[in-house]
Amino acid sequence: MERNDGLTNGMKTLLLVLEEIFTIGMCVCLVLCVIFVGQTTLADQLFQKSLKYEDSSIFTNLVQDKLSQTVAYTKLCSNFEVRGEYDGKKIVDIAEYDKDDFISGKQTESVGYYLEDLIKWSQVGLSYDYRNLHDMGEFGVEFQGRQESGAEAVEYSEAIVEDYDSISSYILKENDETASYIYLEEKYLPVRGRHLFDYVSDDLNESDLLNHLSRTLEKIGEEYQQYKQMKTSMKEQKTNFRYYIVDYKNNVYYTNIENRDFMENSTIKTYGRYIILDSVNLEYESNLSVESTYLYSLLSKYAVEYAGDYYIEAAVDTEYGVIDSITENRDYYYDFLPGVKGLLAGSIFCAIITLIFLIILTIYAGKPNGFDKIKTEIAAGGLIFIGIILLYITAYGINYYRNTVWISGVIAGIGAAVINPFFLLGYFSLIRRIKAGILWSNSVCGWVCSRIAAIGDACGTIFRSRSVAFKTLVTVGSVFAVNWFLISNGAHINGFDILEFLAVCFDGFVLVLAIYNAISRNKILQGIRTISGGELEYQINTAKMSGDNLELANAVNSMGEGLHSAVENSIKNERLKADLITNVSHDIKTPLTSIINYVDLLKREDITNDKVKNYIEILDNKSQRLKHLTEDLVEASKISSGNIILNIERINFIELIHQTAGEFSEKFELRNLTLITSLPDQPVTIAADGRRLYRVLENLYNNVAKYAMENTRVYADLSVEEDSVEFSIKNISSQALNINASELTERFIRGDISRSTEGSGLGLSIAKNLTEAMNGTFTVYLDGDLFKIILSFKKLPQVYNIEET
Fold it and tell me: Whose CB among 39, 206, 536, 777 lies 3.0–4.6 Å from 564's, allowing a Cys bridge?
């Protein structure tokens, strides 16, 4: 018989068959165990020692459920009953019931309905009706025609008026266009006979009343059905659970014990298992595993019903004279629990044996077979797909026949018998691939990675075969080859090694070439650094260069020339633009001055025609705007070309700010802008050109006057540090600023994209350039609609006048 790694094929087959058998057993036992536990309440008892039914957690949980049901039932009784009997005439305050789920039965100033009316109403729900003025009296058509035509209706039909008045108190929605109304159909009226919306007050509007009524009808119908069902199921003849609850506050008791002598003698303990809770004397007694904290926590959920003192007795009749859930679970406990524990133990045992067999077969797994030649991912994906389908079919069958336990067990066994071979096929294929080292190499990912590596090697080869690399490789290889040849084949003449001397000379020559090449490369590197530093006109000296170094140096020189030419052209274009703007501005300025003068002369004339006055005013405004624009253009062109002369002197920054603020006060008042200025008490001195600095402040204040949101505040602050001064002005923009802060200081850029306001887009650009020309900094901050500009200058020390002091 053929052997494979020390384990015969017969032994392997036997182990596989045994593994299959124990796997089937494990799955069948586990599925049956799960089904039994799911159909009963035995889950908590599986891993506990066997106890008497009344001492088990199953019994304790059932008692807690019964207590919860009983407390909920007493709450329903307190809502629907009076003196232990259902009372349909009990008054329900819908606001109180909606909020607290409590029916006091007392008439209040709020909306109250009879209980039986609400229960009947809940069965059909709220309904609404739609009315049109066509339906209101015999003159409805005429009334609507007058309403649509806009004519005033002087006389109205009494039928229309009366019909409208009859529903006006509970109209929910009016539609003036169609003259239609939506109103609530009140199937039952409140206790006082008034309509629902007659109770509208400052505390309750129509929507509140309608919401209270809607939620009340929804809840009271459900609770009434629960009340009827529990009233039957909680009777003494229907359950082994007994209870006796006394509410001292409302002087009422609840019980399902029909024996009056029992209630008077309080012999609850005779039933077997009991609980007694007395809130008056703070006593708690029980022979169950139910803690008093559970009962108190349960009662706290019904704080309205159990707000006062109470007395609770509850017990389970351990004679079990009635067949109920407690009795059924007792039967499950004694009949099924041992079997379920056996199934669980059998499942664990089969799982251990199966694991042992798998370990043995794993150790003696043989060489790869035909299945192992399939790519790893393809094989795994196919097996997983088949396994998921078979597992779904098996699980569906088990769930479908879960009420027929033996059929579910058979399906589980068949499913395990079919799925397990596929699992073993994939598992042992994985083991063999790992042992043979082909898990990665025989995978799709491995194949892809190997192809990528091959492509990388090819690219590397192509890269290395380029001219410079090839020459370097040939040079170095030749040096080594020559040295090896000369040294290994040396000839001696009178003790002198000629070939070794030649090898040294050859190496010296190669060293000189290498140094020469290094010097040339250093010149090229130095030239690149010089050009990148800004000296675009610099040229590398190509004398005594050859080969690749000469080609590289010429390329660098051409690059420098191109950059220099581009920069020169750019500067030339900028100068031409500045000159063009200056020339055009000067050419415009002369006729513009004439226009302004003639407009001024026209304004002095006694013109009575208002239309002509309006034309003159428009000409005056537009000509002044054009004048400011030309001045801004000239100023911007001077700054950009550097053709500006600054008169730097000591400036009292605070005085200049006050002056600018005073000049713009009228403009701010026209747009209801409130200027809030925060300035130091002492003078603040900086070095600046007073006229240029005033131009900067004028542009900033003018920008605020144009673009700030009306009826807002504008903040102007001056802060002084040790060696610097910062002036900031901030406002809320009237329009969204969908632009970067850095772009606002560029020429002809405006925050008002729609250009709905006057402006050239030069104000901030001029202000920034002038500030930087005076060695200051100009910063713009945008945060949503908040616009803020900060000017920063170096602070000068204060100089005091001795005579003034």
Answer: 536
Q: How many CB atoms lie within 10 A of CB 476?
A: 11
Cβ contacts of 553 within 8 Å, gap of 6 or more: 520, 523, 524, 527, 540, 542, 545
- Reduced to 3 states (helix: H, G, I; strand: E, B; else coil), residue 702 is helix
Radius of gyration of the chain (CA): 51
Domains in the chain (CATH in brackets) are 3-40+336-436 (no CATH), 88-93+105-224 (no CATH), 469-532 (no CATH), 645-794 (3.30.565.10)
Closest CA to 304 of 75, 498, 90, 548: 75
In our burial notation (b when 16+ CB lie closer than 10 A, e otherwise), range 316-340 reads: bbeeeeeeeebeebbebbeebbeeb
Strand residue runs (E) in 156-291: 171-175, 180-184, 241-247, 252-255, 272-278, 283-286
- Side chain identity, residue 21: I
Q: Give the tens place of pLDDT for each residue, 748-799.
A: 555 554 444 555 567 788 888 888 888 899 999 888 888 899 999 998 887 6
Please tell me the distance from the alpha carbon of residue 266 to that of residue 260, in angstroms, as a whole number.
10
Tell me the backbone φ, ψ of residue 6, rounded to 5 degrees.
85, 0
Are 520 and 551 a contacting pair, CB within 8 Å? no
- Are 344 and 46 in contact by the 8 Å Cβ rule? The answer is yes
- pLDDT exceeds cutoff 60 at 336: yes
- 532 CB-side CA count, 13 A: 7
The answer to whether 324 and 242 have CB atoms below 8 angstroms apart is: no
Contact 413, 27 (CB under 8 A): yes
Phi, psi of 563 (to 5 degrees): -65, -45
Calculated CA dihedral for residues 113, 114, 120, 126, nearest 10 degrees: 0
Q: Specify the length of the chain in residues.
A: 805
Confidence of residue 345 (pLDDT cuts 50, 70, 90): confident
Summarised one tens digit per residue, pLDDT across range 647-698 is 889 989 999 999 998 888 888 998 899 999 999 988 889 999 888 888 889 8
Closest CA to 416 of 449, 448, 441, 393: 393
